[in-house]
Amino acid sequence: MTSPRLHLLFKWLFAALLGLLLAACAGGPKPTRVEVQLAGNALLNPDSRNRPSPAMVRVYELKTPAAFESADFFSLFDKDRETLAADLNARDEFVLQPGQTLSFKRDTKPDTRYVAVMVAYRDLEHARWRAVGALNLGKSQVVRINAGPRAVELAVARK
């Protein structure tokens, strides 16, 4: 016969094991579904004669925005993967034409907290070439990126 203490110990161990199994079956966090809408202004990236020109655009999924916000343009342009290092989850690159719109949908990685964008404007000294927006985790949302003549804007909204 088993002692009452041993019987109680087995009950506690069984309850703990059952709790661990249920926690493991609960799954990870719900993915964050985003639709990115990218719009180039008709006067995007003007040259010296104010004629619109295409611009290179990069969209990033980031864990934290600190490295992106503190980096200079050329560090991001030339070696973004090294500059962003552990903060970078994903990266997309496009050549955006004046007046063009693009969109894509994706489920972000579980630890993505921010979406960021950079635009390679001709006149960097007078341009606002980057923007960052925080995501609402586990919610479907729209990320609207507007590349204006010399400034990029990013807004995140629930879908």
UniProtKB/TrEMBL annotation:
It holds the Pfam family T6SS-SciN. It comes from the Bacteria. InterPro entries: T6SS_SciN, Type_VI_SciN-like_sf. PANTHER family: OUTER MEMBRANE LIPOPROTEIN, OUTER MEMBRANE LIPOPROTEIN-RELATED. This is Type VI secretion system protein VasD. It comes from Caldimonas brevitalea. The lineage of its organism: Bacteria, Pseudomonadati, Pseudomonadota, Betaproteobacteria, Burkholderiales. The gene is vasD.
